[in-house]
Amino acid sequence: MRTYVRMTFHSEGADPTKVIAVMREVGFEESMGMHDFVYRWKDKAAIAEVIQLVTTMHERLKGLDVSYEITTIT
């Protein structure tokens, strides 16, 4: 199971290296292609766990002026 994040950066927002550092701290790794980051679940996660991960990510990204789109695939 994986959760993918696609980011849109803004010129007035945080430096992309700052965003990458935050995403790594949350547990994501960089990805090439259609998605910018991926979280690889060790086991199949419940929806509540996915929501908690996304909530943590959202809280950590506040103030960085990035937009994101999330896709979770089982």
Written account of the structure:
With 74 residues, the chain is α+β, with helices and mostly antiparallel strands. The protein has one domain: Alpha-Beta Plaits. 35% of the residues lie in helices and 30% in strands. The protein is built from two helices and four strands, in the order E-H-E-E-H-E. The radius of gyration is 12 Å and the shape is globular. 15% of the residues are buried.
- Domain tally: 1
The value of Rg in angstroms is: 12 Å
- The main sheet orders its strands as 2-3-1-4
End-to-end separation: 4 Å
Total strand segments: 4
Q: Helical residue percent?
A: 25-40%
- Unreliable spans are none
Describe the SSE topology.
Elements (H helix, E strand, L loop, with lengths): L1 E8 L6 H11 L2 E2 L6 E4 L6 H15 L4 E8 L1
Helix pairs in contact: 1-2
Observed structural traits:
74 residues, alpha+beta, Alpha-Beta Plaits, 4-stranded antiparallel sheet, 4 strands, 30% strand
Q: Quick recap of the structure?
A:
The chain is built from 2 helices and 4 strands, in the order βαββαβ.
